[in-house]
């Protein structure tokens, strides 16, 4: 039984590496929906999220590290693709889809109920930054292969996302205390 599984896995691996399938299963496609949410709703968010206030008083080192890890976590999916039935992949799809819903809801709550207790609280104000955890984790669990001939493990992406979130959420917390409180 294990030999059959190994043969099937090798066959699937070869089929998954066909150029057309790699394009249709490219991890970069998973970055598009969050970017549509971000750029589609950014202009209607409260003023505290605008570049003038959001970057005011932020230490240069924090902005540098946040943006370095931002580039990493948004570009790495471009060298990754997802197979058909990888270990942990179904959990990854649930995290990704659920994460998009939570991310969208965090934006909508800030837009529609900007003066509510939720939106004015630390957890509510920072929700658009910490809610990315779910769809980043989903991408990390779904995209387990690289089309480049390099050794790859999903932990590389998940660690990059973890560090990005530390700096991004930290930045948003500073904005909260600078602007809201």
Question: What's the arrangement of secondary structure elements?
Answer:
Blueprint: H1 2-16, H2 19-24, H3 32-41, H4 51-54, H5 60-75, E1 80-81, H6 89-112, H7 117-120, H8 122-125, H9 127-130, H10 132-142, E2 145-146, H11 154-180
Antiparallel strand pairs: 1-2
Helix pairs in contact: 3-6, 5-11, 6-10, 10-11
Task: Describe this protein's structure.
It contains eleven helices and two strands. It has one domain (26-180). Helices cover 69% and strands 2% of the residues. It starts with a helix and ends with a helix. With 181 residues, the protein is mainly α. The protein has helices at 2-16, 19-24, 32-41, 51-54, 60-75, 89-112, 117-120, 122-125, 127-130, 132-142, 154-180; strands at 80-81, 145-146. Helix 6 packs antiparallel against helix 10. A two-stranded antiparallel sheet has the order 1-2.
Supply the key terms.
single chain, 181 residues, mainly alpha, two-stranded antiparallel sheet, 11 helices, 2 strands, 69% helix, 2% strand
CA-based gyration radius: 19 Å
Net shape: globular
Percentage of residues in strands? under 5%
Encode the helix/strand succession as letters: HHHHHEHHHHHEH
- Please give the number of β-strands: 2
Q: Which stretches of 5+ consecutive residues score pLDDT under 50?
A: 5-9
Mean pLDDT: 89
* Count of the domains: 1
The first-to-last residue Cα distance is 62 Å
Structural class: mainly alpha
* Count of helix runs: 11
Structure at a glance:
The chain is an all-alpha fold. It contains eleven helices and two strands, in the order αααααβαααααβα. Helix 3 (32-41) runs parallel beside helix 6, helix 5 (60-75) runs antiparallel to helix 11 (154-180) and helix 10 (132-142) runs antiparallel to helix 11.
């Amino acid at each position: 039984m294990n030999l059959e599984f190994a043969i099937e896995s090798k066959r699937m691996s070869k089929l998954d590496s066909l150029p057309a399938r790699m394009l249709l299963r490219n991890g970069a496609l998973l970055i598009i929906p969050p970017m549509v949410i971000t750029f589609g709703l950014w202009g209607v968010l409260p003023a505290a999220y605008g570049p003038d206030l959001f970057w005011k008083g932020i230490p240069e080192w924090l902005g540098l590290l946040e943006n370095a890890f931002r580039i990493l976590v948004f570009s790495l999916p471009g060298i990754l693709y997802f197979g058909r039935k990888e270990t942990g992949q179904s959990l990854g799809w649930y995290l990704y889809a659920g994460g998009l819903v939570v991310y969208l809801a965090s934006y909508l709550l800030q837009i529609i109920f900007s003066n509510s207790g939720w939106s004015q609280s630390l957890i509510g104000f920072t929700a658009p930054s910490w809610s990315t955890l779910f769809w980043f984790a989903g991408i990390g669990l779904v995209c387990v292969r690289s089309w480049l001939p390099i050794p790859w493990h999903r932990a590389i992406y998940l660690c990059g996302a973890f560090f990005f979130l530390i700096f991004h959420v930290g930045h948003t917390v500073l904005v909260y205390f600078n602007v809201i409180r």
